[in-house]
Structures are given as structure tokens and as C-alpha cells.
């Protein structure tokens, strides 16, 4: 039961972090230049691919 | 082997740092301006983040209050000349504000001016230009003047007002 509470707290914390990042990104994305947006898009693709490869190797 | 195994993690973390750096230097660092327009008691924020010019329209004779804020999110002091003027086509009609401003790093300054629409002509298209060393902002303006007197004609061609006078 205690383990469950910890997982719920983890999930809540992760949710708050994601919500905060999305809120701040939506506030500032209008000031980004087109080149900046494109670079971020490419970095996000590389980031997801890298994390995907990492977790695949770990067997998660 | 361990390093190769964690390579994906490190690349992913580097990408996150890169994204944050782009947000900081491309979106936050710089000089930004915002105009606040108060007409008929309502304040409107114009952030100049749309591709087409903003429009201000109010009744002729009313004053419009402007507050122009310039934010300096740079590591050095920003000196600029700010001028707000009203144009009709290519002809400059009115200078509303002009001054040199100096803004310290990560600070902002606000300047205010009032446009008395009576100094301009009604039902005419004007352009408000705000010039700084970095920006040239353009806002379209038009001031409608309602008709002063409406004469309603009766069926036989006599104005109703005349009929009322006769009745008295």
C-alpha cells in the first residue's frame, strides 16, 4: 500500500512537471524564430529516438 | 560497453539542454515591446505577435490613451529613440511622443501618450507609427463620427421636425 502511495506521488510530480513545461513553452514559443523552432523540432526527434533506444537496451 | 549502453541517455539529455538553451537565447533574450491601448475605458494589449497590422477604431472626439512598454532582456544596456506619430498616407500629421530612453539589462521602461482624436479628421484612415531603433510598429486607426442630426421626412416631403413645430 505504501508503495502504491509512492507511485501516486511520483505520477503526480511527473504530471506537474510536464504541465509546467508545457505552460512555459506555450508562453515563450511565440517569441521563437523559425530557425529556433526547426532546431527544437530536430532536437526533440533525436531526443525521443535516443531515449527510446536507451530504454529498449535496458529492456523496459 | 557501459558507455555505449548509456549513449542514448546522454544524447537525450544533451538534446534537452539544447532545447532549453534555444528557448532561453532565442525566445527570452532580446528586446520586446508591448502596447496597451485604452479606448472607451477598455484596455487592450497589443503584443505585435500577429502577421497583420492591428486596428484601433473609436468614436471621433474621444481620447485614446497609449502605454508603450519596452523590455530589455539582454546583458547590456539598451539605448533607443522612441517616436510615436500619426500618418495619413505618406504625410505625417502629428507627433505624439518622442524621446530617448535608456533601459538597463533585464529591465523595462514604459512611456505614455494621449491621442486627442479631435486634432484629426473623422472617418479618415490614419496610421499610428511607433519607431524605435529596433522596431517599426504600424497600427491602423479610424475615428467614426456619428451624424449630428437625422432628419426624417414624412410621406409628403415635409421634415417631421417641421411638422412638430407646426403642431406646437
Description:
The complex is a heterodimer of chains A (60) and B (168). With 60 residues, chain A is mainly alpha-helical. Chain A has one domain. Chain A has helices at residues 2-28, 34-58. Chain A is flat. The mean pLDDT of chain A is 90. Chain B has a five-stranded mixed β-sheet, with no helix packed on it. In chain B, strand 8 and strand 9 (136-144) form a beta hairpin. With 168 residues, chain B is of the alpha+beta class. The termini of chain B are far apart. Chain B has a domain at 30-144: Immunoglobulins (Immunoglobulin-like, Sandwich), CATH 2.60.40.10. At the A-B interface, helix 2 of A face helix 2 of B.
Map the helices and strands:
The complex is a heterodimer of chains A (60) and B (168).
Chain A: H1 2-28, H2 34-58
Chain B: H1 2-5, H2 7-28, E1 30-39, E2 42-46, E3 54-59, E4 63-73, E5 78-88, E6 91-103, E7 107-116, E8 125-131, E9 136-144, H3 160-167
Parallel strand pairs in B: 3-9
Antiparallel strand pairs in B: 1-2, 1-4, 4-7, 5-6, 5-8, 8-9
Q: Structurally, how many domains make up the residues of chain A?
A: 1
CATH architecture of the domain at 30-144 in chain B: Sandwich
Output mean pLDDT of chain A.
90
The portion of residues forming beta strands of chain B comes to: over 45%
Cα-atom Rg of chain B, whole angstroms?
27 Å
Rg estimate of chain A, integer Å: 16 Å
Counting DSSP H or I runs of 4 or more residues, the number of helices of chain A is 2
Mean pLDDT score of chain B: 87
